[in-house]
Specification:
CATH topology of one domain: GMP Synthetase, Chain A, domain 3
Radius of gyration: 23 Å
Structural class: alpha/beta
Helix content: 25-40%
CATH class of one domain: Alpha Beta
Bound molecules: malonyl-coenzyme A, adenosine monophosphate
Shape: globular
Strand order of the largest sheet: 11-12-13-14-15
Strand content: 25-35%
């Protein structure tokens, strides 16, 4: 192996060169294999904060021929049970601090609970397998129009294609330095930031959470050349600037101004936010559009006009078309249609759910469920075909999943969950509830009850108690009518 002294990762404990990272990931892969020649797509879940250990484990699972399943480090117990159980995970890699809380669940599901160090110290296989790039590499859970999140299966080829198109389009280079504070169980953090950076020989500063003052201090110091975030992060940054002196704010804005690119995605970037960011930092945000199942599909140009309110054009190697309800490609501009995608970046299947996989494709095109229009050659996202999907701070949430949990509360007779427009979160989860006879429930009580039953970011931020939910002649709750109640 050639010595590569470039810095791959910086975390709270230190910095690590590409040579060190590769050696550690290989050692981890050999430890995972033990006496086996190949993991043969064994499912190995990772419950690790952004750290050297996370990257070691992810790369190690891939090198040993396993399927990595990165999980939300703050997932609630029932969510973890679904993730581990539905994919028949055999080993869960977690920090020692987390292990106590996980022991009972792992015993129940017959999952071996291990720390990265356990694997590094274990019996090591002599050789690593040749892993065909068509094999499954990763499962990411995504919420949707079903009550439980589905496992999106990406092959090594799909991951490579997703990385290749972004490295090409956004001109990643080995001198790039990028902060990574987004969660590492979604493609925004895993592919767009971590994998693109490591593919390019760049440096990633791993931050286990978004600590805005600490992040801004590094920005002001000129540490980063690139910045990628969801719109909510830009909103929070602007709010933070408002708490600073003019000089303090200027130093941070100058740091952003010196970067070569600021990207926004995972949710719509409001035109006002785009303009505010430009006024403050001089940066013209590059907005792009993607999805767990397909990686990134549309992007404003790196070189060329970036248009506020638009997500640009198809990325290199990604085929995108708008379709009408008869599955015909819409040829004319200004006529809205569903975004459908084809290409090497597209996922293989929903794990163990052939019916859902089949339903999500039409004539070989993946159906996104997002509606867009092309104006002057640029795509503009108009909305989603389902009212049951909510995008809050970049997380895709299923109204049905949240309703399913709330319905198990003894005071709740019926419930409907919707997304309300929100300046910080894009959309905020709101629950309209009809109570059982004689029952009482307030928002604080409901929030407390939800903690431990669902991830904190799914917990309703608004609650309305109604006598009954509005329904149409078929008895279906008319969700668009609910907004007026909040
Ligand atoms: C945190 N909270 C949220 C929330 N994030 N509430 C609603 N929606 C969210 N997204 C709540 C917490 O529960 C908590 O509530 C309070 O806000 C503070 O929590 P926090 O953890 O301190 O918040 P913060 O660190 O500021 O998190 C904000 C954030 C985070 C924007 C950094 O939400 C985030 O990382 N979002 C990105 C998700 C992502 O990567 N999506 C990409 C999916 S892939 P309380 O009540 O306890 O105080 C994809 C494809 C593509 O979409 O195109 O990229
Ligand atoms: P996820 O399933 O979490 O990967 O989220 C994918 C969804 O995020 C897409 O289907 C879109 O609805 C939404 N999305 C991603 N990027 C954008 C964007 N730039 N503008 C609007 N919506 C977006």
């Amino acid at each position: 192996m050639n010595q590569d002294d470039r810095i791959a990762l910086v975390d709270g404990d230190g910095q690590y060169s590409y040579t060190e990272l590769t050696a550690r990931s290989d050692r981890f892969a050999r430890g995972l294999l033990g006496s086996k020649a190949d993991l043969d797509e064994e499912r190995i879940a990772l419950l690790l904060p952004a750290s050297l250990d996370y990257v070691t484990a992810l790369q190690g699972v891939w090198r040993a021929g396993g399927i990595a399943i990165p999980l939300n480090t703050s997932a609630a117990g029932p969510e973890l049970e679904h993730y581990l159980g539905s994919t028949a995970v055999t080993r869960l890699i977690a920090t020692r601090e987390q292990q106590r809380a996980l022991r009972a669940l792992c015993q129940q599901l017959n999952v071996a609970l291990l720390a990265v160090d356990d694997i590094l110290a274990g019996h090591a296989a002599a050789a690593l397998p040749e892993v065909d790039a068509g094999r499954r590499a990763m499962i990411l859970f995504t919420s949707g129009t079903t009550s439980k999140p589905k496992g999106v299966v990406l092959t090594h080829n799909a991951i490579r294609a997703q990385v290749a198109t972004l490295v090409d389009a956004w001109e990643w280079r080995d001198s790039d330095v990028i902060p990574l504070f987004l969660p590492l169980h979604h493609i925004h953090g895993i592919i767009n930031v971590l994998s693109c950076a490591l593919h390019s020989g760049a440096t990633v500063h791993l931050m286990p959470r978004l600590d805005i003052p600490a992040l801004c201090a590094e920005v002001a110091a000129g540490t980063f050349s690139l910045f990628m975030a969801v719109p909510t992060v830009y909103v929070k940054l602007i709010d933070y600037f408002g708490t600073l002196t003019a000089a303090g704010q200027q130093a941070i804005c100058d740091g952003f101004a010196r970067m070569r690119l600021n990207v926004s995605g995972s949710a719509a970037c409001p035109v006002k936010l785009f303009q505010q960011w430009q006024a403050l930092t001089g940066q013209v945000l590059l907005e792009r559009y993607g999805m767990t199942e397909i990686g990134m599909a549309l992007s404003n140009p790196y070189r060329g006009e970036r248009r506020a309110g638009y997500v640009g054009q198809p990325l290199p190697g990604v085929a995108v078309n708008l379709f009408d309800e008869d599955d015909k490609v819409i040829a004319s501009e200004a006529t809205p249609g569903e975004i459908r995608i084809q290409g090497d970046t597209v996922f293989l299947e929903y794990w163990g759910n052939a019916a859902a996989t089949r339903d999500s494709f039409r004539n070989g095109w993946f159906c996104s469920g997002d509606v867009a229009v092309i104006e002057d050659g640029y795509y503009r996202i108009m909305g989603r075909s389902s009212v049951d999907i909510i995008k809050s701070g970049g997380y895709k949430l299923s109204a049905l999943e949240i309703e399913g949990v709330l319905l198990t509360h003894e005071a709740i007779r019926e419930v409907a969950v919707i997304g309300l427009p929100d300046a910080t979160w894009g959309e905020a989860v709101a629950a309209a509830i009809a109570l059982r006879e004689g029952a009482v429930l307030d928002h604080a009580e409901l929030k407390q009850w939800c903690a431990g039953r669902m991830s904190a970011y799914k917990i309703p931020k608004h609650l309305r108690i109604l006598d009954a939910l509005p329904r149409n002649a078929m008895g279906k709750v008319t969700k668009p009518d609910l907004r007026a109640h909040f």
